[in-house]
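Morning!

As promised:
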Amino acid sequence: MTDSPSPTPPFRTRRSGGARRAAVLEVAAQVIVERGYERTRFSDVSQASGVAVSTLQFYFGSRDDMLIEALYTTTDNEVRALEQAAFDSEDPWRRILELLDHGLATLPVGAWRMLLEFWYACAHDEELRQHSVTLQRRYRAPFLETIKEGVGSGRFTPKGEPEDCTTVILSMLDGLLVPRVLEHTYINEDEVKRLIKSQVSDLLGVRES
Amino acid sequence: MTDSPSPTPPFRTRRSGGARRAAVLEVAAQVIVERGYERTRFSDVSQASGVAVSTLQFYFGSRDDMLIEALYTTTDNEVRALEQAAFDSEDPWRRILELLDHGLATLPVGAWRMLLEFWYACAHDEELRQHSVTLQRRYRAPFLETIKEGVGSGRFTPKGEPEDCTTVILSMLDGLLVPRVLEHTYINEDEVKRLIKSQVSDLLGVRES
Amino acid sequence: MTDSPSPTPPFRTRRSGGARRAAVLEVAAQVIVERGYERTRFSDVSQASGVAVSTLQFYFGSRDDMLIEALYTTTDNEVRALEQAAFDSEDPWRRILELLDHGLATLPVGAWRMLLEFWYACAHDEELRQHSVTLQRRYRAPFLETIKEGVGSGRFTPKGEPEDCTTVILSMLDGLLVPRVLEHTYINEDEVKRLIKSQVSDLLGVRES
Amino acid sequence: MTDSPSPTPPFRTRRSGGARRAAVLEVAAQVIVERGYERTRFSDVSQASGVAVSTLQFYFGSRDDMLIEALYTTTDNEVRALEQAAFDSEDPWRRILELLDHGLATLPVGAWRMLLEFWYACAHDEELRQHSVTLQRRYRAPFLETIKEGVGSGRFTPKGEPEDCTTVILSMLDGLLVPRVLEHTYINEDEVKRLIKSQVSDLLGVRES
DNA sequence: CATGAATGAGACTTCATTCAT
DNA sequence: CATGAATGAAGTCTCATTCAT
């Protein structure tokens, strides 16, 4: 279903690793969300994780590498979770709903913000951008597969092609991230969910199973 | 049709300024797009504009204020252009198409990127975030008005409410920005336009005039 | 009695002058007291006086010249006032008391501080230091003259020479400035006056007239 | 005899430090004396000490903190030396003479100037001013104790109270600093010593032991 | 394996000064 | 006579990075 079940990230310099390393990466991701990608310094991650600055450098080599690996790991985990969510249900429509739920929820708390940070970072770092291409493909796959399956079984009767449907759905998911990150109160969390589900339902022409 | 009688931006410290000031702001916006918001330094803008670093400080007070004012002004102009585009046509559907064209084009060159920079900056600066709330309201208005008008005249027969239609349209516009900024080649410029127009057409239930 | 009734200050560059010039100098002296000699900038004096920075430069040439002239003028006026106070009374002891009162009061308010600023500035500027030599001589003269007169008439019967008496008196005046400027509360204003008068009385061996 | 159990200086930000730190502080004090408090920059201390500017920042946090700590430490050491000098002799009058010698000498070379710099800095920094209050109390104590002792043993028969005597002595010490710092040649080093000793002798009414 | 000490590069910022009006 | 615009010089400060332990 996916084309890269466990990609080997081509990190610039992966020096050493330990048990704390993974933990530090999570902390780093948190700090990125709070302070912003570019404003995240060694000392911030050091303070938040309790690991000395020089140790961080020892782990990751440079600041950029640390940040990039943090984003890489985080987004990778995210997509992997989505990929697994795609197998939780038999019915295509239920599966779509689960994928949507997952795409909207996106991690514990305030982690839509992570996605914006990721986009921003990708826009200025070619390595991350390449990663985003892969991620996008993997992110897209479960939706596309499921839609195709639904169309094949007659559960879905969309007007357009499955590819277009997928694109539209993902664009709405991305687009609805913005008002949430920027706290635009014209629309709240519940309305977002309601809106997107009804919209996707119409789009796919869902029939009773 | 619009609700914004030319907003007065409450800048933190607007020191002084002359004719060059406005020109510098445009250059600054360009540099922000090229280098990224956080990576834009005084010296970059100085070099790009031919104005001494100390003069920039004289104009804007601080680096942050310069960047913020640049984003503020640029986005403001953008929305203002959109507001005027809304008057160019009588027929609601033609007007929607013009608004979409404008929303997709977004400035001369590579200035979708500007929007991502703006989002990123808003996520870390309360003043800009406040501005984004206002901008979003103004950006939304022409779409909403036009849709209501079209519904009233029978030109549009959407399934949902005009508010929801507007939200969906804008979310797609925002969401389709991402693959373009990140150069995700799975979809190209023309397909984006085709896709969004057909999608909006379906959404609104456009009838022949 | 004095050796320079109206000294011509050899200012580095006295460019132009007007009515506001003198007023600005007073304001500058005030600012010096408040902010400290070295911390006083053109913009401070500009703000306090309402005169544009470039105008200040037009008046005084440079920042240093402005500050030096301010200190020069202020201290000069001060000594001149002391010189005149020396003639207000016939009786040597009364005259000494008046001189002491004047030496302790030193200008309207918070202007002991001015004297400390002056010392500090003199310690780092040869021109001002030269000026301080002259000032010290003029400041000393009325005391010395009066003491000599009192000794001659039998009003004073000091143990030591008039020169030494004068030196001691002036050193106490200077020394008691410190706790007042630094707000050392172990001694208050009234005690200072009482102490110095009784001390000087003993020192001079004052007899009933 | 003294009331100061080794004060703990509440420095604003004492980042880190090693063995060189203390050495740098002494150098900084020297530079302050030579260049003046306000004119002492990082680069001056860096050049004089051979320590990189960024290291100074690493040690002290900021320029102000470096200067303040330098003055703090220096004056503290000075007073501590005085406190110990008070134990060198049994006879009160000899002890007073030693205290006077110490008060007049004040450190190796040209360090009366230090005291003027200190006053100036105190006048513009509340933290230093507070410190000066403590210092003054400690500086005063040995004199006051010794005088009281001398009075009790009949060695001294002053006209006034011991407190007043102490105040007068200290004010003369402070006041005679000025002509030395400003190089007022009307009185030289030897005369200062002769004058102050004879003056204090008269003041205390010293009797043969 | 992990860290503190030390440092250089490079940013922001202040401020006196020059110049045209 | 007085001023605003513009700028260069020089300072402080941040921060990633190197090195010895």
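Chain C has ten helices and no strands.

Hope this helps with the figure draft.
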